[in-house]
Structures are given as C-alpha cells and as structure tokens.
Design brief:
164 residues, alpha+beta, 3-stranded mixed beta sheet, two-stranded antiparallel sheet
Length: 164
C-alpha cells in the first residue's frame, strides 16, 4: 500500500509540474521519495541527513523550496510542536490528530475511522473542507506517573518534617 501512496503522490507532483511548465528535476522526486519513506514526523535537518545517507546531496534551499511546493500540493503537512517545526507525508490521510504531552513534548498519532467520521459529520456553511489537523494537549501516562510519584514524595517528606 505504501508504494501505491508514493506512486499517487509522484503522479500528483508530475501532473502539477507538467501543467505549470516547471522542470521535473530528480531532486524533487528524490526528496518526495525520502519523505514518503520516513515513518512519522521529521525536521528538515533530519530529511537532509536522510538524503545524505542515501548519497543524494541537496542544498537547504532546495529542501525548503521542495517542502513548500509539497505543502501547496497537500503532499506534506507542517506541524508546529514544542520541539519546533516538523513535517509529515499526508497524501493518504485527510484527517490527522496528535496527542501532545505538555510535560515531555512527546507526540503520538491518534486516528481511526471514528475520528474521521466524527470530523466528517461536522456541518460547515459555505465551506468545503479538504482535511483537518487536530492537536490534543495533555500529560502522557509516563509523565503523569512520574508527577504522581513526585507529589507523593513531597507529601511524605512534608508529613515527616511535621512529626519532628
């Protein structure tokens, strides 16, 4: 299925470039391929490192220009998280949801048919939605447990100090 999504993304890029009489450069296709082979979110630095590891060097300007084009074509989506700007391949998903821990900054994908159905049933006047990105902020279970332990230790220490 991944290859089918990549092929459809490549076809979208090809159609756009042909219709707008822009060059079909090997760099654009190599960057698109690299993006669709990254599992999850990535920074431009991580994308550049992946390209270099694949023995395909591109300048930062080329990466920025390609990413901007891909966002315009809805092949890539930009997310602003606590750790900075991240990108993600998005051709295959119109509804996108993240849960973000406000303590450690961990980002986890949330989704499924129920979410898509819920969002798809929202009635919007004079507007035709093409997709949705939703961020849910909270505390992950790891941080919640750690915070509860710290709170318990403070209570114990306070009680012991009062007994003295």
């Amino acid at each position: 299925m991944e290859d089918t999504i990549l092929q459809r993304a490549r076809q979208t890029l090809t159609s756009y470039l042909e219709e707008n009489k822009r060059r079909k450069t090997p760099e654009r296709y190599a960057i698109l391929d690299a993006i669709y082979h990254i599992n999850g979110h990535f920074t431009l630095e991580e994308l550049g490192a992946k390209m270099e590891a694949d023995n395909f060097r591109v300048s930062k300007a080329t990466l920025y220009n390609a990413i901007n084009l891909f966002m315009q074509l809805r092949l890539v989506v930009r997310h602003t998280f606590q750790q900075g700007t991240h990108y993600e391949a998005c051709f295959h998903s119109d509804y996108h949801c993240h849960q973000i821990c406000t303590v450690c900054g961990k980002v986890q994908e949330v989704g499924g048919a129920a979410l898509a159905s819920l969002i798809g049933n929202i009635k919007l006047k004079r507007f035709h939605p093409m997709g949705c990105s939703l961020n849910i902020y909270g505390v992950c279970s790891t941080c919640h447990t750690r915070l509860a332990r710290l709170k318990g230790r403070k209570r114990t220490t306070k009680t012991n100090n009062n007994k003295k």
